């Protein structure tokens, strides 16, 4: 009896000292970044996110840079005998920018926060591009008329220009940042978001070059024509954003990140079930025929 008790004690000591085996390593991903399967599943989403971010940054950065040029028409020009104070001019441009930000830019963000889960990301983005295109065309086609008439037309032009920033933030300037963060699987999300953002910065470079062309030193008539052409080009860029958003951008409203991930896994599982499995050097279809 004592021998049996000693054996059981030894067994219990051995079982208590044993550590549980480590968990198995996670399975490798079924496909990698920029593989054919990635391009088939997410290439369209990456294209839409990158192109939309590129287009909106072309418009947004150009609009900000053109603000000083527009202010030079809006403000009273000093006489030739009076030297222009650079600091006062810079302060007045900053003051005008602050007014536009308070009246249009910041309210546009808050409108997006309130309506983004009621209207949807895609609809807000299309709406923003649409109204920005309308404003650019309305302000660009009769551009010289606004500055050749009385003071009221100048104020009306500034109101139109403020609507550009409102619908930019209540539109693609906000949604182009949100959609890539929700659309892609977790292991690709940050990379695809960074690629989309890099495309946006490329659009900012293009917008800066366009600003330099529009503000190139020339006579007043040629300068007006350049500004009109810049506004019409920006309107065309917004129209291109409407088409890219409508045909290529997916809606993510009402779905959590986990649901997006589960949906992608379901697509992967469905595709893997359709593919023949290899068993001992033969596909499952061939082995099934042999058994029959």
Q: Describe it for me?
A:
The protein contains 11 helices and 2 strands, in the order H-H-H-H-H-H-H-H-H-H-E-E-H. It has 292 residues and is an all-alpha fold. Helix 2 runs parallel beside helix 8 (186-214) and helix 2 packs antiparallel against helix 9 (220-248). The radius of gyration is 30 Å and the shape is elongated. Strand 1 (278-279) and strand 2 (282-283) form a beta hairpin. The chain has a domain at 62-71 and 89-250: Growth Hormone, Chain: A. It has a two-stranded antiparallel sheet.
The N- to C-terminal Cα distance equals 61 Å
Tally of contiguous helical segments:
11
Total strands: the figure is 2
Low-confidence stretches: 274-292
Overall pLDDT, averaged? 78
Might you state the CATH topology name of the domain at 62-71 and 89-250?
Growth Hormone, Chain: A
Main beta sheet: strand number and arrangement? Answer: 2 strands, antiparallel
CATH class of the domain at 62-71 and 89-250 equals Mainly Alpha
CATH superfamily of the domain at 62-71 and 89-250: MFS general substrate transporter like domains
What share of residues is helical?
A: over 70%
What CATH architecture of the domain at 62-71 and 89-250 would you give?
Answer: Up-down Bundle
Q: Which class of secondary structure composition applies to the elements?
A: mainly alpha
Radius of gyration from the CA trace? 30 Å
In order across it, which strands form the biggest sheet?
1-2
